[in-house]
Design goal:
Elements lengths: L13 H9 L3 H4 L13 E5 L5 H8 L3 E5 L3 H10 L5 E4 L7 H5 L4 E6 L8 H13 L1 E13 L13 H9 L3 E10 L3 H5 L3 E9 L3
Parallel strand pairs: 1-2, 1-4, 2-3, 4-5
Antiparallel strand pairs: 5-7, 6-7
Length: 205
């Protein structure tokens, strides 16, 4: 089985990650973007959903969720933990999202939590138009960028907010949020890890 680019290190540490991710609440993890989340039921795309904690939170809010996770060792525990009828689990990955795009759906909210920095420059250039094509006219795109030491065995790049905003602007997506914060995970705090949260909406000329 071919390893999906960017997923290196996750299957090998899946058991540890399942426990680690369960310790942080949805509200704590997404405190800087909670005000941007839709309140009325809508269609949510959660890319790189891991064990589905965010997908489950969105489903509990009444949203219809597509949870995309390419790592089997995370996706299967996620399905077992969060087998909600309004979550559709999908084995797919950036930058192509070929299975998802074949479904011909658009979304009101797209979330990429700790995903974008796993893509190299060429992949990011290819992925942004794909994401824009999955957004409906009033959709919001939210993503996070990790800055700091790269964990052993992982494939990550230190991606700037400026580059990301430039790629988004090429798709008529304008930033509505750009916030840099310290990590909320204790081990990451100790190693100086920071996060940038970005959110975009389509500019209609």
């Amino acid at each position: 089985m071919n390893k999906i680019s960017g997923t290196e290190g996750y299957a090998e540490t899946a058991d540890y990650l399942v426990n680690q991710w369960q310790e942080i609440s949805f509200e704590e993890h997404h405190a800087t973007v909670l005000h941007l989340l839709p309140t009325a039921p809508c269609r949510v795309l959660d890319i790189g959903s891991g064990i589905g904690k965010d997908a489950a939170a969105f489903a509990a809010m009444g949203h219809s969720v597509v949870a995309v996770e390419p790592t089997r060792e995370l996706r299967l525990p996620g399905i077992a933990l969060h087998d909600a009828p309004n979550i559709c689990w999908l084995d797919d990955s950036l930058p192509d999202l070929s299975r998802l795009c074949a479904m011909n759906q658009t979304f009101d909210l797209i979330m990429l939590s700790a995903v974008w920095m796993h893509l190299d420059a060429t992949q990011r250039q290819h992925a942004m138009p794909r994401l824009a094509g999955l957004m409906n006219a009033s959709a919001t795109l939210i993503l996070s960028l990790r800055h700091g030491p790269i964990p052993a065995g992982r494939r990550m790049f230190d991606v700037s907010a400026e580059e990301t905003m430039e790629l988004a602007a090429m798709q008529n997506l304008l930033p509505i949020l750009n916030v840099r914060t310290a990590s909320i995970q204790k081990l990451n705090q100790q190693s100086g890890v920071k996060w940038t949260r970005l959110a975009f909406r389509r500019f209609l000329s």
